[in-house]
Amino acid sequence: MQIYNTMSRKKEEFVPIEAGKLKLYACGPTVYNYFHIGNARAFIFFDVVRRYFEYLGYDVTYVQNITDIDDKIIAQSIKENKDFGKIAEKYSNAFLEDCERLGIRKPHYQPKATEVMDEIIQIIDAQVKNGHAYESGGDVYFDAESLPAYGSLSGKKIEEQMAGARVEENKLKRNPADFTLWKKSKPGEPFWASPWGEGRPGWHSECVVMSQKYLGETFDIHGGGIDLVFPHHENELAQALATTGKPLANYWMHNGFLNMEGEKMSKSLNNFFTARDILDQHSAEAIRFFFLSKHYRSPIDFNKEIIAESERAIGNIYQALKSLLSESSHSPSDLLTLKISNQALLEELNTFKAAMDDDFNTARAIAVLFDLTRIVKNSAQTLSDREEAAALLLQAGSALGFFQNLDILVEAPMPDLSRQLIDLIISYRAKARADKDWAQSDKIRDDLAALGIELKDSKEGCTWTIKG
Which superfamily is assigned to 2-280 in CATH? Predict the structure, then answer.
């Protein structure tokens, strides 16, 4: 497997720290509002990373944080005239609800910053004591110049940051590149006691503590959106190097932006849709399909028409599976465990794995799902081959997070009277065909199609299925 590592700026072979195990951390939300559909790209992608490694047989430990104390949360608490804890709780719950609706599996650990406050204070204190941080006016700053490796992840040099500093730069800092580890609280703000007085942690200290608590000093993959490379991930890495002398992660993965008319979608630009807005209009699988149809590192433009196309594509795949299942003795769960023996299909499987092993090229992997769908629908193929194609479609698709509800593939039992009425209408059509009344035959077929009943003519007669 090759993974593009932001640290080296190239693809590297993935070698886990411990054979057969993956330790993965991806940055979660700052819970001051509903998350937008651009945030959903990262949440869905790292859900796929986790799922694919599990599909390969890895023992995965996936950690995603929730930042529940931050300047934005405090600002929102003032705006809504509520305690900051109530704001954090409200939007944390909303985040979890929206993730569930999007089909994102809950991480193994999902710590909140306020739950690890003692550990945060300890890591900041360690940096002060070893000379990598200093207290100034009740705040604590990381001394960027004390760490020669600072800037190695983002490529940003300390000198460049100093040269671009504004005249009104924070006078409490030794230089503009230094970043905040601990903030002195202002009147009316939430605070925690610390060796430097009452205050709260900086964002960058929160994540390094939460990741190391559950994954160890160095873990396999750290992920997030491309906008987090600097300063957030750079400053996480700096604290890890300053306290343990070891890298925080061996591989750094970052997904590209979701753009709105060429601009990054963000709350600050007020050009966003919340995930729940889009979920009210489109299925979770269509949204997942929309994101995975493009390589994760590439920017993607938000387009409702393309999501609508994704909805149709997903619908076509489900219809193909439903049609096959109506002919097969296998259940959907049977197909999920069916062994593939057809050599041509095994080649499709190899193509799928090659795509995913090439830096998670989900766009190419989805192309394989289309190929399999065509085989499932191809009545010229044997039923056995079509069943194996359906099995592979379900198995590979599940590794991407599709087909989470197999029940919708099983048609609900239809009352006998309804079946009799449809059969009666089809008999009238058969009479029209026998009389060569093609116009009436076509009208009956089209009218039934409008009701969601699809007819299929063959030498043996006419069969019907209900479209999804």
Answer: HUPs (3.40.50.620)
Q: Which long-range contacts (CB under 8 A, 24 or more apart) does 100-104 make?
A: 101/275, 101/276, 101/279, 101/284, 102/40, 102/43, 102/44, 102/275, 102/279, 102/284, 102/287, 102/288, 103/47, 103/284, 103/285, 103/288, 103/401, 103/404, 104/43, 104/44, 104/47, 104/401
SS3 263: strand
Q: How far is CA 287 from the centre of its chain?
A: 10
pTM summary value:
0.85
Per residue in 332-375, pLDDT (tens digit) is 999 999 999 999 999 999 999 999 999 999 999 999 999 999 99
Rounded to an integer, the average pLDDT of 90-110 is 97
In sign, the C-alpha dihedral spanning 390, 394, 397, 399 is negative
CATH node for 303-409: 1.20.120.640
Is the distance from CB of 319 to CB of 60 less than 8 angstroms?
no
Do β-strands 133-136 and 139-142 pair in parallel, antiparallel, or remain unpaired? antiparallel
Work out the end-to-end distance of the chain between its first and last CA atoms, rounded to an integer number of angstroms.
Answer: 37
Q: How far is CA 208 from CA 111, 191, 238, 444, in A?
A: 12, 20, 10, 65
- Residue spans of the domains in the chain: they are 2-280, 303-409, 416-466
Q: How far apart are CA 321 and CA 403, in angstroms?
A: 11
Confidence at 267, pLDDT banded by 50, 70, 90: low
How many angstroms separate the CA atoms of 61 and 173, rounded? Answer: 38
